[in-house]
Amino acid sequence: MTTRTSGETTETTPEGPGGIRLQKFLADAGIASRREGERLIQAGRVEVNGQVITALGVRVEPERDQVRVDGRRVRPVGRRAYYLLNKPKGMITSASDPEGRPTVVDLLQGVRERVFPVGRLDWNSEGLLILTNDGNLTYRLTHPANHVAKVYRVKVKGSVGEEEIRTLRRGLLLDGRRTLPARVERISSQVNSWLEVTLYEGRKNQIRRMLDRLGHRVQKLKRIAIGPIRDRGLKPGEWRRLTPEEIRRLLEGS
To answer: Minimal CA–CA distance to 200: which of 154, 128, 139, 149?
Structure first.
């Protein structure tokens, strides 16, 4: 690697095709997803061989280079781990929280592997969440180009009309960019409405924001499926290992 120092950080430019990208190494080691790994790098929290790295594109040799995040040594992962959790409300979807709030990882009592959540469910949302240290699976489930379906049951304040449902299906503008077409089915509609919404992308608070645009506040949101994975018997706060067949189907998109 070639480096140049500016202040207390070191910007590094990649050399040659050897090794793997630093953010992929972090994902494979179970530290963070590739996208979150990029943010760690740009924030100056990652060191390679004693030098702080802030530029993306750096490649490392896992068996030769010493990588640290926040001062802690990161080692290549040996065994892959895959867990399915039914997230309850009132927890952060993160491996840690600087404010000391409870996280979904806190629920995995007895799990020795260091795993991280794939995607997010916000504080007030609940439902199925996968945690793993497999960066390839994380990429498969979160990259927008893969269009992995996530299914949600949503309780909405007020009655949602047919034209509003058609608008949700077509997509609407959020932050200047149109959402992908979604499947939206009405389950029931009385004083309030229950909808089943299937998304093929994962923008922050997407369902809540889409319905807010139409004047309907989400009162309850629960994810009931991730791709082919469902589990009606898993109670809030409970978790289990994914089966080999479930892992295969997630990786192959079947």
So the answer is: 149
